[in-house]
Amino acid sequence: MSVAFRRESDEEHKEPRFELPIPPGPNPVTKRGYALIKKRTEELEGAVTSASGEEQRAELQRDLRYWRASLATAQVAPPAAGDAVALGTRVTIEQAGKVRSLTIVGHDEADRAAGLVAFASPLAQAVMGAEPGETIDRPGNGQAIRIISVELA
User: Fold this and answer.
1) Which of 82, 95, 123, 103 is nearest to 29 (CA)?
2) Confidence class of residue 60 from pLDDT cuts 50, 70 and 90?
3) What's the pTM value of the predicted model, to 2 decimals?
4) H runs (alpha helix) in 8-149
5) Most exposed residue of 19, 52, 66, 112, measured as fewest CB within 10 angstroms of its CB?
């Protein structure tokens, strides 16, 4: 029989499951972000113990490794003063004639649709440290960003 018609196992045809990437560098988080990471870790620990199949358990354990690493490296950022854009502040900006508000948060808390932007994102990096009334030239797209207001989130 030709080797072309042999099948060693079903496993060799599955897509490989890689570990979830952990962002490089420090892991600053807000108090809310820390609580969310801790809650997710606890939920996954419970789910792993009650998982029925080996495949399901393996996937949950992979997710749990990510969240445990995130929890272990989380550093709750000190409260922001509120006078300049920092982790844990809500900033209202005007860019290209559009006004929008966003909150600067940690990686695991980010949700662009909800206006929660990770501190490492290009937009957050562009406005970090800026104060109300300041205008920042955003590299790459040529659109200036005007800081309208900054407040504690």
Assistant:
1) 103
2) very high
3) 0.81
4) 31-50, 54-73, 122-127
5) 52
